[in-house]
Amino acid sequence: MKKELISLKKIIILAGALCAYWIGAGFATGQEVLQFFTTSGANGIIAAVIFLALMSGLTYILYGIGQKKKFGNPYDVFEYYCGKVIGQVYIWYTVVLVYAIFVVMLAGAGATINQYYGIPTYVGTGVIALLSLGTVVLGVEKLIEIIGVIGPIKIIFVAIVGVSGIATLINQPNLLSEASNLIPTLGFQTASSNWAWSGILYAFLALMVSIPFQVDCGASAKSLKEARTAGLIGTIAFTVAIISLVIAELVYYKLIVGQQVPTLAIANHISPVLGLIFSVLIVLSIYSAVASFLLVTVRKFAVDKTKKFNTIAIILTAIGMIFGGILPFDKLVNILYPLAGYSAIIFTCFIIYKELRVKNRKFDNEVEVDIN
C-alpha cells in the first residue's frame, strides 16, 4: 500500500488559510466573538467547544472531498451532495451570499482604516481593493500561500490577548463568575439568547460561506491525509482563537463596554505596542477576507489565472468599490445570514446522507469481494 505524502509546511499553510478566511474584520475587532460567545458568559466557552465539534467533522469531510474529487469548479461540490436541481439553488445562493459579504467588507474597509489611521476613506477602500485584486489574479494556490501565512500570525496575537486574560484570571479568580453575571446586563448585542444555539449557528454560518474555499484548499493538498489533517488543525486553531477572545473579553469586560473594537481596547490596555499591532492585524484581516471572498465568487465563473477570470475579478471589484456604499447590502446580508444558518443545516443533512451512502456502497462491495 502506497504511503500518503504529508508536508508539515503544507498542512500549516492550508490550516492557516482556513483561519485567515474565517478571521475577517468582524472576528479581528472582537465584535463577532462578543455577540456569538462572550455575551453568554462562561457558557460561551462551552459554545465554542460545540462549534469545534461540529466544524471538525465538516472540515474533515470537505477538505477530504476536495482532495479526492478535485472538482474543476469548487461549486460542483453542491451538485455532488445535493443533485443537479437543489445543487444549483445552493450554488447561486452561495455566490450571492459571498459576494454580498465581499461588498460589505470592502465598503467597510475604507471607514475602518480611516478610523484607525486618519487616511481618507476612498484611499483605504482603493488600497484594500487593489491589494485583494492583485492577490486574486495570482491564482488559488498563491492566495492560499499568502493568507496561509497570515492566518497563524492572527492566531498567535489573539492567543497573546487570551494568555494575558488567563494571567489576570489567575490573580483574580472571581472575575469569571463576576463577568458571567454582569455581561448580559451591559447592553451588548447578542446573536442568540441561547448559548448552545449561538455555537451551533456560528458553526453553520462559517460553513455556508466557506464551502467552496474548503474544497479548493483540499484540492491543493498532496494527499487525502494531508488535506484532512489541515482541515482539523485549522478548525482547532480557530477555536483556540475564539476561546482566547472569550476569556479576554470576560476578564476585561469593563474595558469593552461601549467599544466598537473590543480587541483594540484590550490590546491597548495590555500594551500600546500590542494595540498598534492589533490595528495592523485588523487591516490584514480585512485584506485576507476580502481577497478570499472575491476569489471564491469569481471561481464560480472561470478558472483562475485565465483572461476570463481576471476580467471578471476586475469587474466585480469595481462594482464593489462603486456601489458598496450606495446599495443596501447590509440589509441584504441581514436577510441572507439567517437563511445561511438554516440552509447550512439542510446542506449538512445532504452531506451526511451522501457520505453514509458512499460508505455503505463501499462496504457492500468489500463484502461481495470477500464472498467471491
From TrEMBL:
List membrane-spanning regions: 12-30, 42-63, 90-113, 119-140, 147-170, 195-215, 227-253, 273-297, 309-329, 335-353
Keyword Membrane (UniProt):
yes
What top-level branch of life does the organism fall under? Bacteria
Any idea which UniProt keywords this protein has?
Answer: Membrane, Transmembrane, Transmembrane helix
The record, for InterPro entries, names: YkvI-like (IPR038728)
Tell me which PANTHER family the record gives.
Answer: CONSERVED MEMBRANE PROTEIN, MEMBRANE PROTEIN
Protein name as catalogued: Uncharacterized protein
